[in-house]
Amino acid sequence: MKIRFADLSFLDEITEIELSCFPKEQAAEREQFKSRLIAYPEHFLLLCDDSGKVAAFINGLVTDRCELTDEMYKNFRLHNENGAWQMIFGLCTRPEYRHQGFAHTLMREFLHIAREQGRKGVVLTCKAELISFYEQFGFKNEGVSAGSVIGGVKWYQMRKTF
To answer: Which of the four, 24, 58, 105, 139, has the lowest number of CB atoms within 10 Å?
Structure first.
């Protein structure tokens, strides 16, 4: 497996993986991914197998805002390369590659990069069943997110401060 930055050549594959991880009403759309890949490809990591097939990905913008909001998912212009906080919009693994440690590998690398870039920390939202997964990496549960209601689901904001 190889970690690499994403580019537009992976757009269809990324969109397909997203739809395998989230119901349609919660999943990012192809055009959202296209905007993200153009605006901040250096904050979009892929884990690829030996054939180049994407097994998993992680992405998110950087901002000075300390709370993750639904607006950030759709508005790539909110990205500020010099921002204090790295947001995570998604950590997705293709179904046939799950339970092999690939999400852990990508998360560790993403956190390492954010720390090396001098960020204050990393923020994400997740469903209740994933809180313990993110706690493994040092994220703290801040409770139900006031700024994220995508798909009518209760999202919990998690924060890792460096």
So the answer is: 24
